[in-house]
Amino acid sequence: MPDHSPRRRLGSWLIASAGVLWPLAVVLWARIDQQSLHAWSVEDGPFETLSAILFAGASIGFVVVAFRSDFLRRKTHGLRYTSMVAWALLMFVFAGEEISWGQRVIGFETPAIVRDANQQEEFNLHNNAVVENLAGGSERALSLMILVLAVLPLAALWDRPRRVMQWLAFPIPPLHYSTALVGAYVLKRFLRGEFLFPWEAGEVREFVLALVIFLMVVEGARRPCTLFRTCGPTEPAPAKVTPPRATV
Hints:
The chain has 13 helices and no strands. It is mostly helical.
């Protein structure tokens, strides 16, 4: 059955409320002390480092979800563990890209073939000119991902979209995370350039995305059914086994 305990409801309300308040808090931070916000938003600064750690944690979390999910073990059609493996790999790539695969930590030189194609001459993919052109820019790809993750919980309120996502074994963020994701989208669309420098808005958004996905996966690792909307009465019943008829 769904967990409607006061503690869980309080946690959901706190996350939903934080999603509304955090963009205002960032703008207030920018108004009060722009320099410290900038210090948090530079390359290898706290926001970028924390984002990499959270993405790495989410990568491990998706593997845990795959091992613990009764729903995935029972699936006999559609995608089974492929979705969780894909998300784990995607989060691992995000973590690596955030820190340019440890280039500035280890201190190795960017290979010439990568440096010539990279807009920041770093060892990563998201600043590659070809990738930027295909995705319409890493900022646009990030905005699209944030928007899709924010809309999925709303779409899952209807039976048919929810069943499609279950068939694909696609993780659905709990509804209370949508406000945080909408806040990240709003920060870029309406606040960037007016209150914040572009790189500051970008780093804050990436951090919020990483935090939301990490918390979503932690919640899913504890109760995998929350990610597939199979808790309680919507959880598929195990297949009935008909005993063989006795022969005379």
